[in-house]
Amino acid sequence: MTNRFYLDAAVSTLSEKQAVIGGDEAHHFVRVMRGKIGDKIILFDGNGFVYHGTVEIIAKNTVIVSLTEKQKDEIESPLRLTVACPLPKGERQRFLVEKLAELGVADFIPLALQRSVARATPSSTERFRRYVIEAAKQCGRNVLMNVANEITLPEFVKQLSDEHYRLILHPVSLGAAGQITVKELLAVELPRHIAVLIGPEGSFTDGEVDTAIQNGFTALDLGARILRTETAAVAAAALLLTDAG
Questions:
Q1: DSSP code for 29
Q2: Contact 110, 152 (CB under 8 A)
Q3: Of 23, 22, 21, 52, nearest to 39 (Cα)?
Q4: pLDDT value, residue 7
Q5: Spatial separation of the C-alpha atoms in residues 140 and 32, rounded to whole Å
Q6: pLDDT tens for each residue of 123-174
Q7: CB of 89 within 8 A of CB of 115?
Q8: Residue 145 in 3-state DSSP?
């Protein structure tokens, strides 16, 4: 069981020597973990700071922690990876969000494409953000992956900066688009800002591929097999982040 808890600024407060945990995290400590006064716990704020402390008071809806140490995150990848893809169906959405968060993706952007099979709603986006917190607690990450609201492909392209190296996952088997291989990709030093565009189960339309290529995306072929959306996203994140630190 983890002794890591998220300091949600919406329901928790933090001072130099004390933290007051509220909301779901207080409930989890008291009701699920059966925490007690005197327990040693670790708190993280989602922005890269970690706090060690001892539980001093347990109230009805809050847990008060006396802080003993503050640390700056040292495990976050120097690569800022943005993954943009449409949502898969059902429980595969949770798998997608959790694994991207665990691997160290900086930003996840749900995309509304022509062949999307599921759409993000305000309630689902809020649920995804909770998945991110749970993943961070489990894997030891102290910076939360940002989950954006759903946008269209033109909106996504428009918000990228010039410093982003842009990749679209598109196997050769679906049509020539100037693809590079994984070996070719890893043979060069990549910049520290990368955006990866992934298609839905029915793949991109020709028009969507053209839009991406015309806006500076390089097509990347991950291999002969056609991967599900969530598999392709996780594979790309693992490929890029494993060597990045």
A1: I
A2: no
A3: 52
A4: 94
A5: 19
A6: 999 999 999 999 999 999 999 999 999 999 999 999 999 999 999 999 877 7
A7: no
A8: coil
Cα 52 versus chain centre, distance:
24
Main-chain phi, psi angles of 105, to 5 degrees: -60, 140
Asked whether the predicted pLDDT for residue 45 surpasses 80, the reply is yes
Whole-number Å distance between alpha carbons of 94 and 242:
22
Neighbours of 157 (CB within 10 A): 19
Tokens for 68? 């003993």
**Cα maximum dimension of the chain:** 63
Residue with tokens 């940002």: 146
Q: Encoding tokens for residue 245? A: 């630190």
pLDDT digits (tens, 9 = 90+) for 7-24: 999 999 999 899 999 999
Distance between CA atoms of 224 and 9, rounded to whole angstroms? Answer: 46
- In 3D, which of 150, 163, 160, 146 has the Cα closest to residue 106? 146
Handedness of CA 204, 208, 213, 216 (dihedral sign): negative
Determine the residue type at 55.
V
Structure tokens given for 140 = 């030891």
| Calpha distance 200→39 (Å, rounded) | 46
Strand partners, 4: 42
For the whole model, what pTM was predicted?
0.91
213 and 168 Cβ atoms separated by less than 8 Å = yes
The predicted structure's pLDDT at residue 1: 44
Mean pLDDT of the chain: 93
Output the CA–CA distances (angstroms, integers) from residue 101 to 6, 23, 58, 93, 105, in the order listed: 15, 22, 30, 12, 6
